[in-house]
TrEMBL record:
It comes from Collimonas pratensis. It comes from the Bacteria. It is found in: Periplasm. The keyword Endoplasmic reticulum does not apply. Pfam families: MdoG (PF04349). SUPFAM superfamilies: E set domains, Galactose mutarotase-like. Pathway: Glycan metabolism; osmoregulated periplasmic glucan (OPG) biosynthesis. PANTHER family: GLUCANS BIOSYNTHESIS PROTEIN, GLUCANS BIOSYNTHESIS PROTEIN D. Keywords: Periplasm, Signal. Belongs to the OpgD/OpgG family. Residues 25-517 form the Glucan biosynthesis periplasmic MdoG C-terminal domain. This is Periplasmic glucan biosynthesis, MdoG family protein. The keyword Transcription regulation does not apply.
Amino acid sequence: MFAALGIPLEAIAANRVKFGVASAFSFETLIEQARTQAAAPYKAQQTAPREILEKIDYEAHGKIKFKNDYALFADGAGQFPLTFFHLGRYFQAPVHMLLVDGSGADAKAREIVYDESYFDMPADSPARQLPRGSGFAGFRFQESRKGDQAKLDWHKNDWVAFLGASYFRAIGDLYQYGLSARGIAIDVAQAGKSEEFPNFTHFYFTAPEDGSDTVVIYALLDGPSICGAYKFVMQRRAGVTSGVTMEVETALFLRRDVERLGIAPATSMFWFSETVKGTGADWRPEVHDSDGLAIWNGSGEHIWRPLNNPAKTTASAFGDNNPRGFGLLQRDRVFDHYQDGVHYERRPSLWVEPLGGWGEGAVQLVEIPTDDEIHDNVVAMWVPRAKAVAGSSYRLRYRLYWQQDEPFPTTLARCVATRLGNGGVPGQPRPQNVRKFMVEFKGAPLEKLAFGELPEAVLTTSRGKFSYVFTEAVPNGVPGHWRAQFDLTVDGAEPVDLRLFLRYKNKPLSETWLFQYLPFKTRTVYEG
């Protein structure tokens, strides 16, 4: 068994987990399976009795723990033990878990057969009522038992998890989960259509080399509109504070037309920040997993778009050709800005790096209203320009970086805060249709300005007019920390697209700040 690595099956699964019949496996055969499956009508997965699954609510699900004695790769194979999640109310679709034995033409896959004995659960848990072989909901890789990470309790700490539909997430440099990625996004916030959530239905695990910091898994995705095959090469870099990198290769096949096909989607939560906070919304100064969308476009421009919590669902598109990268980032890393024990200041950023040309399309950002932190309400994704019609296929590669900062930051000054307040002049009545903006930038190009040299704020707007425009060094004594201030006067309720960067003598000093101002919220009391 596992001849390529010389690892016996007993070492892979502690000789406890039950396996099904072996069948041939390769990534190319998985791709062909997805192609063939997409040509046939969609068949929804059979699930365990829904009335039982509904009883396994959040509290009941939290009491069901996979037994560490049954972890794969925990006894001599690799360094990252593999454990599984149980089905429940919020994770009802069973997922087939298979172990790949051997390599090349000799590779075989054997399914890991579900058994309730793999889990610790209360005697009265509704999960005990499920039929035999009901299946798993997802999986996670635990921290290493070797090197620096051995200081952590691998039984309690994991670094990547796949759970629910095609969702997955990983920790970053600061050892914290936050936003999620997805295999695909189908018709997010598309007028007249319901969003579709395809499922990863099968996962295939290869035995990692002993001591390697990399694991390789394969997945089959299926849904009413799409079928696809995925390969994930996931690296947990040495040390506790180094994040996770994933190289993803996918082949996608459409069963039917899709209006908004989201490639490499990221899903996050943004409730409020220092930008706009309604009086009495919450006791904390800020609550968000991500505070902005960063784009490095095909022409080399670095863009920062602060996130909004809009009054109604909005979608923004940033057209591009062969983008260099984009991501939802958490730039604010100061605990005092959150004051929360769940540590929003440690949430990872997620950066998408296309590998190979992706052609024409747009990074699209969907923002959905929320009044609580429990709802993911932000999606960022790449949407190809060509229509996604039935019979279309895609072969794509990209790399995901889960870490505290973007992997390819600009050398220009970066935006560090956006603040809104009442416009007009202090001591005089404040007009309702005027808003004041304070946009802060910090970075080396601003540090190099000599005394008396004043950067210019280069501003454009889709509508409205500017007044009181000026720049100044933030009076905090921090070198290279400047802000641009301006008032915007605008009538009507339609969104306003703003654009700003700093320059001196026609030389750009900062990245480009984009912002979608929402006038229909102007009667809110703003606190900066």
